[in-house]
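Protocol step 4 of 6: structure prediction from sequence.
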Amino acid sequence: MNDLSKSAIQVKKCKYCGSPLGKFKQTLCDKTECKNKNHTERQKKYLKTNPGIMVGIRKKYRDNNIIKCIDRVNQWRKDNPKKNRESAKKTRDKYLKEHPEEGIVKLEKWKKEHPERIKLKNYLNVLRRRARMKSGMDIKIDYDALIQKSKMFFGCCYCGDEGKLQIDHLKPISKGGYNNKQNLFMACGRCNSSKNAKDWKDWYRKQKFYNLEREKLIEHLSISDVTRGVMKCK
């Protein structure tokens, strides 16, 4: 029995470094590295079972080391500008989804406090749009063709709403669209603002009021007479 007990004691090894243990040692040796590893493991297990304690520890550290925490945050923002912008955007979007009313109130307040900036922004948008239109084909809008199209669609070309309609560029001016009759359609304000500068097919197919017949009709009317003749010849 004595020989067996001695052999059993000799088999015991440290679970971190694998060195043989003494007679009264169970799992750890006397090395500081192994002790530190064991301490961190036990601490992690404890904090998982008691998450509220870690929050208190971090808060206490921040309160006692405010300047250090601020310096670390500023340094991280300088070293990682892209990640900082992405994280700030995520937190802002998340907050606005959870509190939409506060976002609207803040926006209205900012507009009242900065009327000059809004005027300048609107003026610059008008100048950009004019420049894009001049760079493309300067064609006069055929209002008779637009009225006929609205009658064909019984209102908005996308959803069929018969309320107030707006002129919509099927291919946006920002992406090379023109004022020709094949590119102009009548749409309601909701559809026009929702589509914005997106591809009209990708946007329309994701909507609840999607209609395959309307899509085919829009596609047919958006093709010019020249291309339609070339397609027939083929």
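Step 5 (inspection) to follow. The chain has twelve helices and two strands.
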